[in-house]
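Escalation from tier 1.

The customer reports that the assembly of two entities below gives different structure tokens on two consecutive runs. Tier 1 could not reproduce it. I'm attaching the input and our single run for tier 2 to review.
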Amino acid sequence: MFNRKDRIENMDAYVEERLSDYLDGTLSPHDRAIVETHLEASERARASLESLRYTVQLLKQTPAPALPRQFTLPVTSRAPTQGAPSWLTWSLRGVAVAATAAFVILLTATLLRQEDPNQAANAPVAAVVPSVVVAMNAQPTRALEGALQESANDTSATQVMITVEAPAAVESAPITIEPSAAQKSQQAQTSEADAVPPPASPTEAPVANSQVVQPTSAAPASASGASGNAPELGTNAATPSVDASTQRSTFSEALTGQIIISQLKVREGPGTEYRAIGGVRRGETVTILGRSKESLWLLIEFPRNRKTGQGWISVAYVELNAALETAPFADFIDVDQPAVIIPPTETAAPPLETETPSAPTATPDPNGATPVPNEEPTKESNGNPTTQAPEGNATETPTP
Amino acid sequence: MNELKMIAAAQKGDLPAFNQLVRAYQTIVYHTAYRVLGDGDAASDATQDAFVNAYKNIRSFRGGSFKAWLLRIVTNTCYDQLRAKKRKPTASLDALLIDPDNPAPGLGEAKEESPHDHAERSELAAWIQKGLQTLPYDQRITLVLSDIDGFAYEEIAQATNTNVGTVKSRLSRARNQMRAFLMQQQELLPSAYRLKHRTGETKNLRVENV
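Tier 1 run:
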């Protein structure tokens, strides 16, 4: 009798230490068998398990505090470092200044030189120059660091030159210049500089577009679109080359949505008949992985769902950063499995059109609920490392 | 997926790409910081610092789980915050309030929650926050990442720069401590949430199937 009681008490201690793992199902089969046997024998152990389980459940239902604000970094943030010694950084800075200056000058020069070749090419030029200047004025250091970054990546001034020369001749070239046009004007717009409106008026742009089937014409279109009627002109801007379109579609995956009611349930499946597994709050941003067949439910990343890391929310209370159609369809199987994302197989055209005007904004102004046709710079600059850094960084100037 | 592309772009200095990552992770980062620091302002500071540090050091990310990599920065940043400022943790009740329309997981199907229940839940959340503050940092961060944020052991191990075995034992100790704390506060806890450890009585538990 005593013996048995002692044993149970010893076991209590042994089992007690393992209850946490037992709850999580991470015990070895051996230990699990011991724990389970003991649980049957000891009421104390059972009670302990229950209270522990209850504690964990309380923790799991701890409500999430509302996000007080967006934490996107301002454009003045320091660029990533490779751990280069600071003296080197400083000396490179001089080079960077020179490179940036050269870039602006070359750009202006090239653009002025090609007065005649075709009207379309002319338009983006005018759009670019003033805004570059704006950017430079607003954030000199930023531009420098950008250029610095560039030299670190061994993209030297020569490559910058290539970029600038390009629009004159080669057909692929306009793609390189296009982002800068769109980007700059967007930039200028955000900073509310007056320099924006490109000489090519919104009415002129489409004309140029039809005359010259070169992608270049998309630049004036989107440029004027940024300062004027964005959604409408966005469609024009969608015309450019295949290159640009592939870049877009890769980035269209970065679809996010912001919750616009105080609380929204996250469910295990696409429908109110499925269990609610948590909630998201107003202002929270969720990553959209897909949508249900009827487009009534959105599949989101939801790490709190331990089984799949996903959850479903109603489409009605989410403001997307791009058109709903850009989300791939997600095939719901059951609550224990991640949904199957069906890669979009439609033609490139529809996603392009819808996406251009409303893709995620690159400007650090997360509160702007209205979609801004601002994604282009991001995508393009990603796809085009050659042109990226000097522009990309110079552009990120505006917001306070 | 796209995340890798965004990371690659950010590594080249593409700030907008990095900000996409920020948008994707800010909620979880803030939430973690909030629970660990027990204070909204401190959590805001820590979250911002963590993202600044992440951007600065993003080139040191060499694959694997970005989330875990990021959380490691968060963990360290929170620790620095605690050490540097030695803030008195003050959990704001307001920030813990949750809309009755949407109880968090664990309460089973969201039935109508009466104002009374709602108030009790908020109160409970405040107690949990207090309980967290009684834990040593290692245990606290582990408990938050595991039971509140729902991360896997491996991710927690990476985030706290340790191994899975240590994560498990810290978690076990933290849960026990948390249970002890809640039981100590028995009388003060909302009646619906009191633990009935001694008697082994479990029917009072509101949560049965999670």
